[in-house]
Write a structure and sequence with these properties.
The complex is a heterodimer of chains A (113) and B (113). Chain A is mostly beta strands. In chain A, 0% of the residues lie in helices and 52% in strands. In chain A, strands 2, 4, 5, 9, 10 and 11 form a six-stranded mixed beta sheet that branches. In chain A, a hairpin with a 6-residue loop joins β4 and β5. The relative contact order of chain A is 0.35. Chain B is mostly beta strands. Chain B contains no helices and eleven strands. In chain B, a hairpin with a 5-residue loop joins β4 and β5. The mean pLDDT of chain B is 93. Classes of the chains: A mainly beta (113), B mainly beta (113). Chains A and B meet through β5 and β9 of A and β4, β5 and β10 of B.
Amino acid sequence: QKEVEQNSGPLSVPEGAIASLNCTYSDRGSQSFFWYRQYSGKSPELIMFIYSNGDKEDGRFTAQLNKASQYVSLLIRDSQPSDSATYLCAVKEVTGGGNKLTFGTGTQLKVEL
Amino acid sequence: DGGITQSPKYLFRKEGQNVTLSCEQNLNHDAMYWYRQDPGQGLRLIYYSQIVNDFQKGDIAEGYSVSREKKESFPLTVTSAQKNPTAFYLCASTPDSSNQPQHFGDGTRLSIL
């Protein structure tokens, strides 16, 4: 059973700080990694995706991938109260047909004033 | 506007009843997916379809059925065999079966009467 692990949190950070969200995965052959943000009672929305080792930046968000360590992270700079949500890590399966994703259980982020 | 439309937003099921959740997309996407999310949990794949008239079971297909008669529509039926149907159901789509990120509809919340 392929697994994606996240710390459930809550992770509390002060406004303006950097929030660091982490995710590990079990399938060493995984190629594609996605971060979704989910507000309470709402559906997930895509924040970032990353395919290659290293960093990928988009505005205040940076995704980091280390395939050797089977580790992907999301950094949120200058955290705002509106960033308070649950962040889901998803990993694309290598085997099998289709674009099947395995999701972690999510990390709850709280940005405090 | 292009997007994924799920209906209804809230649905109540009586014991022994089958109910059908609607998912429609006007994005011309080939692949469509159904997920289930329980409180405090990640998303689990129920069924997915890569092309019209074809679909595959996901990780938790028991008690559910789907059809894909049209490219834009992928309805999910929750049958009476599904003994614990209370959950948040999410439909997603991608242009094809490659690495494209999945984007979600707004979800349907199903409860037992």
